[in-house]
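Q: Hi! Curious about what SOS response-associated peptidase looks like structurally. Here's the sequence.
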Amino acid sequence: MCNLYAITKGQAAIRQFTRAMTDRTGNLPSLPGVFPDMEAPVMRNGEYGDRELTMMRWGMPSPKFVTKDRKTDPGVTNIRNTKSPHWRR
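A: Let's find out. The predicted structure is below.
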């Protein structure tokens, strides 16, 4: 996961590339910039094990030690480094 990406291919191309069996994205427009906290398409295993293309909010919750004294969670968007404190418990 990185801080910014774009969706420049059409919905049919995304379905074909991901071999989605179910598409729950509706009419997916091109997204020249997908930013944290925006909805973006993701591929996941559906309820019955089928490949499902759906929309989800982009980003991940912060680790508990980050939000300890905060009222809101700023979230994390760049956690490619597997040695990052984000992955510690």
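A: A fun detail: The chain has one domain: 5-83.
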